[in-house]
Amino acid sequence: MGFLDKAKGLVNEANLDKARKLASDENVDKAADVAKKISPDSADGTIDAAADKVKSLNDKS
């Protein structure tokens, strides 16, 4: 069994619901803050854009 086969097996509604709960706006902001602390300042805009995208995708579900 390859890596992708195992990953496909993990995609189910229960795991998606768990991921959605973990991807709350507050947790996304915390993760972005940590990423900005350990990355160069030049990456801050990209990190913020990625966090905004995650939050907007989470709002759609």
From TrEMBL:
Top-rank taxon, per record: Bacteria
Organism per entry: Isoptericola halotolerans
Protein name in UniProt: Antitoxin
